[in-house]
Amino acid sequence: MNVQDLVPWGRNGGRSRNLPAELDPGSTLFTLHREMNRLFDDFFRGFDAPALMGGGAAVVAGAWPRLEVEETENEYRINAELPGMDEKDVEVLLQDGVLVLRGEKRAKIEDKNRAFSERFYGRFERRLPLDGVDEDHIQARFENGVLTITAPRTMQSRERVKRIQIGQASQTAH
Fold it and tell me: CA 38 to CA 27: how far, in whole Å?
């Protein structure tokens, strides 16, 4: 028995199958089923993502706002995409070595007239552990919907990095 014979729809060598009415791609039930699958796929994608900067905060695919984090020897630079938002809508805090970005994006139109939307509205909060930053010299600027935070690293955190020499493995004859 072919595995494709068990699937009620899909590619079958170019042949089409007769689908039950509730699984017809044009039906609302099929559309609902497909959208629910997409919702769960989007929600669970990213749970196995690596931790960010060793702090245990997983990068989740559906997290908003989207971030870019750059770590150099001297500083961390974080860029957060916040399209359609103003500086007054965002709050940046450093609390116990954790950078907190939070705010709220409000809709410009009323829900009663909206037929469909894929845009994000509502409150958000992202937390990033930043180890060894100079708290007195962190800077943030907001330009063209992008929040850029520059957090200089302390001399102690730079000195704690130890480079380990990589050597050749010795070949011994047995």
Answer: 17
> Cβ(93)–Cβ(100) under 8 Å?
yes
At residue 95, φ and ψ (nearest 5 deg) are -135, 115
CATH architecture of 60-159: Sandwich (2.60)
Structure tokens at 168: 């050749």
SS3 93: strand
Smallest CA-to-CA distance from 53 within 76, 31, 37 is with 76
Residues 18, 162: Cα–Cα separation, whole Å: 65
Residue of 152, 153, 142, 150 whose CA lies nearest to 78 = 150
DSSP H/E element including 35:
helix 28-44
Q: 4-18, 101-115, 151-165: lowest mean pLDDT where?
A: 4-18
What are the boundaries of each domain within the chain? 3-44, 60-159
- Residue 36 φ then ψ, to 5°: -65, -40
pLDDT at 2: 56
Omega before 65 within 30 of 0, i.e. cis:
yes
pLDDT for 7-45, tens place per residue?
Answer: 555 544 444 455 555 555 567 777 787 788 778 777 766
The pLDDT score that the predictor gives to residue 33 is 77
